[in-house]
C-alpha cells in the first residue's frame, strides 16, 4: 500500500503538468492576446538578466582561453585556440551555462511572483472577475522566456568570444581581426543551428517550469519559497536532459 | 415573474483528501438580501463561497446561481455568471504589481472591453468615490492600509456592477473601528447598488450590522439559521459561543 502512494502522486503530478501545458497552448492563440504584458515581460526578463549574462559570458571566454593555453602551447597548437574556444562556447558551454543562470534568475522569480499571487488569491481574483489568468500571466511569461533566452545566449556567446580575444591578445598579442576570423570561420551550420534550437527549448522550459511551480503553490507563504526553489531545481534538471537529447538527435541527423 | 432566489445551495459536500470539509451545506439567498455565514475558522466557509464562484468544484450537491447549476456551466456560461457576481477576497487580493488605477482598469478593459480612456477614468473614479478612496488612485497596493485595501478590493469588485457580491471575511484583520466602517460600507453597497450578498465572517459586530439572515456553519453543515436576534437568543451552547 504505502509504496503505491508516491507512484500515484507522480502520475498526478505529470497529469497536472500536461493539463497546464495544454491550457498554455489553448490560450496561446485565443483572442485578446496580452501584447502589452508580453512586451513588459520581454523587457523585464531581458533587463534583469543582461548584466549577469554579460559578465558570465565574458569571464567564461577568458577562462576557457586561459585554461586551454598551456596544453595548446605544449602541442604547438596555439593558433587553434580561437576556433576551439568558439566551437565549445557556441555549441555547448554558452547555451547551457546561460540557461542554467537564467533558471536561477528567471524561473525562480517567475515561480516566486506567481506563487505569491497565488497564495494571496490574486490569481483567483483574476479568474472570478472573468479575466483569463493563463492568458495574462502564463502565456506572456512563457513566450517572453522562449524569445529572450535565445537572444541572451547569442549575446553571451558574443561576450565570451570577446573575452577569449582579450585573454589571447594579452598573452600573445593576437590581433582582433585574426582572432575573430579564426573564431568565426570554423563555425558552420551544424554548430549554430542545433545550438539555437536548443536555447529555444531551454527558454520554454524556464518559463513553463516557473509558471507551473507558481501556480502549484497554495499552502501559505512558505510555499512561495518552495515554488521559487523547486522551479530552479526542476528547470536546471530539464535543461541538462534537453541538452542530452538535442546532442543525440542532432548528431544522428547531421553526422550519420 | 422571475424567481427571487439568486443563489440556492443544497446538500453541498466537499472533501480534500480524507478531510471532509463540507458535509451537506445548504443556503438560500434571495434577491436584495444579505446572508451572513458564521463559523469557526477552518470550518469551510471560504471553500463554500469558492464553490459558488466556480473556483472549486464540489464533490456532491447542487449550487444554482441565477437558477443555473454552476458545475454544469461551460467556459462561456461560467464567464457570464462571473460577470454578474463579485468576490471580495479575504486579503483583498489586489494585483500588487499594478497601481490602484490599473487594478480598476484591468477588469474594465478585459471584461467590458472598454478602450476609451475617459470612460475608464470616470468609472474608476465613481467606484473609488463610492468606497471613499478617490485620493488613492495613483498609489500602489503596498502603500494602502488594511482597511483601505479592503475598500479598494470592493471598488474593483463594484466596477463590473455585480448583482451578487461574495464577501470572504471582510473585516478580519482590521481594528474595531475600521471593521465597523467596512461593515457599514457593505450595507451601504447593498442599498446603493441593490446587490445581494453572501458575507462570511466570524466577526459578530459585522454580522449584526450587515445581516438580514444569519446561518451558522458547523462541521460542514448548517447548524442553525435565523435573524441575528433569533440566534442571539438561542439556547444552543455552540451558537451562544459566537455571541460571547
Ligand atoms: N485547496 C485546498 N486544498 C486542500 N485543503 C484545503 C484547500 N482549501 C481549503 N482546504 C482545507 O479546508 C478547510 C477549510 O478551509 P476554509 O474554507 O479556508 O476555512 P475558513 O472557514 O476559515 O474559511 C481547511 O482545513 C483547509 O485546510
Ligand atoms: Mg477563510
What does it look like?
The complex is a heterodimer of chains A (256) and B (244). Chain A has helices at 4-28, 35-74, 81-119, 122-128, 133-172, 176-185, 189-216, 222-254. By secondary structure, chain A is mostly helical. Chain A has one domain. In chain A, helix 2 (35-74) packs parallel to helix 5 (133-172) and helix 3 (81-119) runs antiparallel to helix 5. Chain A is elongated and about 70 Å long. In chain A, 44% of the residues are buried. Chain B has 244 residues and is α/β, with parallel strands linked by helices. Chain B folds into two domains: 1-84 and 195-244, Rossmann fold (3-Layer(aba) Sandwich); 85-161, no CATH class. Chain B has helices spanning 45-52, 75-84, 100-110, 117-131, 146-158, 176-193, 204-210, 228-232, 237-243, and strands at residues 5-16, 19-30, 34-38, 60-65, 68-69, 85-88, 164-168, 196-201, 213-218, 221-226. In chain B, the strands form two sheets. Chain B has a six-stranded mixed sheet, sandwiched between helices. In chain B, strands 2-1-4-5 form a four-stranded antiparallel sheet, covered by helices on one side. In chain B, helix 4 (117-131) crosses helix 5 and helix 6 (176-193) packs parallel to helix 7. Chain B starts with a strand and ends with a helix. Classes of the chains: A mainly alpha (256), B alpha/beta (244). Chain A binds chain B through residues 32, 113, 117, 120-122, 124-132, 136, and chain B through 50, 53-55, 79, 82-83, 85-87, 89-91, 93-97, 106-107, 110-111, 156-157, 160. Magnesium ion binds at residues 45-46, 90, 168-169 of chain B.
